[in-house]
Amino acid sequence: MYLFTCYILLFLIINLTFASFSISIYVVPSSLPLNGGEDGTLENPFSTVEQARDYLRTIIRSSFRRVALYPTYHFVKYHTLIFDERDHLTIYTTMTRDEQNRIQSSRKTNFIELDFPIISGGIHLTNWINDKGIWNIVVPASLSAVTQLFVNGHRVARSRLPATSYFTYEKGLDNRTRLAYQGFIYRENQFDNITLSSTSTTEFIIYHSYTTSRHYFSKIFPQNRTVIFSNPCLSVIGNTSIIKQSGQRFHLENVYEGMLNEEGSFYFDSITQILYYHPRKNESLQTTIIILPILETILSIIKVHQMEWNSIGIEHSAWMISKLNKSIPIDGRAAADYLDKSIVAVYLRNSSEIKFNNMEISHTAGYAIQIDRNCEQITIENSRIYDLGAGGVRIGIRANKNEMYDGGHLFPMGVGILLQRATINVLITENSIYQFFHTAIQIGWSWGYDESSSYNHSISFNYIHHIGQYLLSDLAGIYTCGLLNGTLITNNVLHDIYGYFLYDWGVYLADGTSQLMITNTIVYNTGSAAFTMIYGFNNTFQNNILARSSNQSDGALSLYRRESLNHLSFTFQHNIVYDTVNESGRWIFQVQAPDPFSSPLVIMNYNCYFNLYGNMMIFGLGRLVFSEWQETNHDTNSIIDNPLFIDADSQCNFFNLNIVSPAVKELDFKPIQQLSQWKSGC
């Protein structure tokens, strides 16, 4: 088994002046023919990052060397930028203002001036033809599909129908046959006036519970309204057990009619290799910058020791640029979570002491960064990671003070930070993670009690909000599974977590989650329970606030037990449950399966429960009122009382407590520190 390790270090902040480097190498892109006279100086800078890298490989180094990039686009073109064991002790950064001013004006001809250098995995498309208001251009024959396009620094829509909502199919096919994985029965007149061809790259995107799948059209049978795809799904389409979670929704992408109807969208004809773009009214051929991604991996770092990336952007990674195979499954779950070195902009393996600081990684097709096998001391700090095809970061890192947002554009199941397989000693702290369709942070990859080698993580002071966004189901702000010995989730704030249909929890302890502590965490505005647990043992919830979970039947705390081992499931003490549902008999602690109270499987005590309307609350499998619940030797020292949040009427505060709060005075609740990233508002 491979081990992904990230030691928690005390970092010394040292203000290095550029004068302390014995050598600086400069990179300024040039549209002029190379004359062979580049030596990396300000007078004769290199034209590409590869030139600077190759030059430094000829120098024996015992201290860091600095490579300074001019703040413009640095297009990598057709090959991943690869670093290996020859590329240690290097810092890649941006030029100072003084250095920029010393670059000869002739080198800046036709430059796109930026605030910082951007290493791009795309190509700048010029020479568009305007044909009656629709722009078109022939793209390289090596591209089998175009799934993304960026115009003036923003992602534009791949043409789709319907433009903003969904179609729904009538039902799936007979699940006793393989066709159940390859089609469905559509609704009457659903595909009228839509061109469907087996030779096109039009895709059907089908929504399941917690993922999506992509399919290519093969055949249609109007007589029984059946559509068949060339590539199967990994699961039955229209599975009746998840109809409510999926909504039997789908939409079409890369549709010519959709491009004609929608400004700011594109369509790719794979037969003619012509890319069409329907410009917005304020866009002109003379001033619009259009970039087409062509590299799946932009930056690869393998067997490198000591390297730093500072104040640089990495943008425009691609998907589906190689030969198109219309017969294999394209499941969002697989593409976003399972595959090795797949659809990732920055890839690391067998490397140590690699630091990314003040970076912008965006406009990706899949994950932004993957830290793979045998990596140590990988740090990502003070960076923005956004506009992502899937998620933010995979595997083991030290992630500190980053902003990760706007994910899941191609694969909605992408996770902000995903710690899977064997990860140890990962520190995730002071990050803001928001606008993902599935989950902000996921820990563990073993559904059950098997050894997971995922432990001793610290998830602290993170601000997580607006997760789910009503698109998928079975999701959470923080999602855990398996044995997580020594893992601590503390001082996080999570809010506004809403899925398409239920199963949208604040913190979700999935199958086998064990040996986990959650403390000093605030969860509010969730579609389902603030905390939920499937099964596990020795988990602790202490000194947390659970507030304003939805009016669904899930309550504020829920336990779904699928096994009956005689062990302690969890301890729930010194917490505040603040319920705002105007419903008598609200099930505050919900238990879904065999009675866990025949033996002491949970410990609950010293908690403060409160319903804003004074309605009766019930607890446990027996649906007991509070006094009956206490007779079962649970919550014997707990109270039902107003915790006295300051400005509670506004429903938009940070849950600061009045100094005379009964939770503080009687139950020893410790007020929770307000996060620096937190923003007021409902």
From TrEMBL:
A Pfam family the protein falls into: Beta_helix
Domain Right handed beta helix, chain residue ranges per copy: 344-399
Membrane-spanning parts: none
Signal sequence annotation: none
PANTHER family assigned to the protein according to its UniProt record, in alphabetical order: RIGHT HANDED BETA HELIX DOMAIN-CONTAINING PROTEIN, SECRETED PROTEIN-RELATED
Name used for this protein in its record: Right handed beta helix domain-containing protein
Species of origin: Rotaria magnacalcarata
